Amino acid sequence: MVLRKKITFNVDEKSAKRNLERGAGIETILQALKQYAVDHKGDLPAGISAAPVEICSSSVARTSCRGLADLSVITRDGQYIGAIPSEPLKTKANGAGYLVSRDDVTKRLTVSAQFPEEGFTISKTR
């Protein structure tokens, strides 16, 4: 009985740690996109649309980003971000596990984690 509780506690602790990592990844991506927009007169990378799309991993070739949001312009030469963070439980080899979208009216960006744990929604709009 004690062992079972300890294992459950460790799983919850690991889930909480991954959720914190997701929040940090979202913030990192949003900061890089914000700075990119400032430097480009409000324009955003072409891969961002109104519908949420998974961000392409920066560890794959751009040709592997078909169907994903290619944000390689913010990772090029590490000017805005060194690499796109990876969602801890991502499922696609060429995807980062985070979704990105923009509201065409308000011009606000939303980045969210696809696989949050413990019943949380982890998303930020700026």
Q: How would you describe what is shown here?
A:
This protein is α+β, with helices and mostly antiparallel strands and 126 residues long. The protein has one domain (2-125). The chain is built from two helices and four strands; from the N terminus they run αβαβββ. β2 (95-102) and β3 form a beta hairpin. It is globular. 23% of the residues are buried. The model is unreliable at 1-9 (pLDDT under 50).
Order of helices and strands: HEHEEE
**Average pLDDT metric:** 89
> Biggest β-sheet, characterized?
4 strands, antiparallel
Number of strands: 4
How many domains is the backbone divided into?
Answer: 1
Total DSSP helices: 2
Strand content: 15-25%
Look at the helices and sheets and give the structural class.
Answer: alpha+beta
Shape category: globular
Strand order, biggest sheet?
A: 1-2-3-4
Question: Distance between the terminal alpha carbons, to the nearest Å?
Answer: 46 Å
Low-confidence stretches are: 1-9
The radius of gyration over CA amounts to 16 Å
* Helical residue percent band: 25-40%
